[in-house]
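To close the chapter, one final illustration. This time we ask the reader to focus less on the individual chains and more on the assembly as a whole: which components sit near each other, and how the overall shape emerges from the parts.
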Amino acid sequence: MDWLQAFLPLNLERLSVWIGVLCTLAIYSLLYRENPIYRFFEHMYIGLAAGYSLGPLGVDILYRYWIEPIWIQGYWAWAFVVPYGMYLYFIFSERYGWISRIVIGTLIGASAGLFFQEFSSRYLPQLNSTLQKPLWVSDANPDLTYGMIINNILFVIILLSVLTYFTFSYEQRGPVKRVAIWGRWFLMIGLGAIFGNTVMARMALLIGRIYYLLNDWLMIRVGGG
Amino acid sequence: MLSVDRRWLYLILFVNIVIFLLAPLRMPASISPPVQKFYDEIEKLQPGDLVMISSNWSASTLAENQPQLEAVITHLMRKQARFTIISIEAQSRDISYRLAERITKEKGYQYGEQWAHFGFVPNLAVAIKGMVTDLPNTIKQDVRGIEVTKLPVVQGVKSLSDYKMIIDVTPSGTVPVWISYSPKNVKILYCPTSVMAAEAYTYLDSGQIKGMITGAKGAQEYEQLLGIKGLGAPFANTISFSHLLIIFFILLGNFAMLMNRLQARREA
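The assembled structure is written out below.
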């Protein structure tokens, strides 16, 4: 009896769980066949997700970083920031479309500036790490094991063959073509591993939803715990 | 056999998942090197060290990111480390806050004193650059509306450089942004969903990230290292048995197709 009382949507918290269950089942009803209930909930979900994001945007961003500095701290110059950003919408006007290019130019300039830092921080350490891979034991690296040496040699072979595959400046013939074919095979193996992980991730999505049905709705503890 | 309605396969998969989620089955997992490195890095933390958790997942990737975040917070509390959470996903702001509040309450961790949630920021690159220059002025308030300067957990913190570690729990490609713009003295650890993990091995190999927990499988390994019973183990076991079922379906389908072809050839 206690379980039934806790299970039924008699308070706001339980009602939200029941609505969540209804949405989940409606979305999964597509697996049976295409139906209007699925379509309705699909559209509702997209609208809800967009609407939900507006809340945090209003409270955490617009209020905190724009309205509050202007009204409370008196930084009146900030008042020009949002109208300036909104010039972007002139893109829909044939006559005043040029105004939007000022904002686009600012965005491109900022992105290009950020990319300089991104390139040096993101890719240079990888190049450095690749060039520093020891391929044989020496005094400089006495702790190197045979397993690590094989791993490093494989790394370099795969890297060079994949780079050869992506060299399009001249016609690939003879040994270069053979190396490029190896590069393609290595790429396929890599993509296969990524696809395997994708299957695992998609399965986890389904498990997450079934966990919600069992744990939150039916209040059954998962994993026998 | 080839004419079996695919909906029967969906039903069998659903029943299979329910059975293995409910079964009191906790199979041991072998610990992979990225998970071991992750664990070792957190073990090196001293009491009072400050950690930034970037939590960017929502309900859709709950099965992978929730066990990861639970295990990570549990470990940080065990090490008596202080931590702050930040989200670049609007839904994640509420989900991660509620989850952290539940776990910390169970262990008596004080909000504001030992942990805090910085809320939602929309542009990670800009937010990181702001936090590197001036953290209190970039974040301004926490999720409860308290000014960051009044939070004891980040008392005296001027910049992201004052942190020891960044832990990115995410289903999106946010870790390259952390790598690109965060200070070089701050270590980065990564908790991706399985689909994102393959691309991250380059960062792991170059040392740009110091450890990685991959999806529910990684969470299962981490729970085993911590000696706790979390959601990682039942989720990872269920994934394993679902994969076995799918492999069985693929083999069965191929076998049926082969038999059909043989029969057609015989009849011809």
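The mean pLDDT of chain A is 90. The CA atoms of residues 102 and 144 of chain A lie 56 Å apart. With these observations in hand, you are ready for the problems at the end of the chapter.
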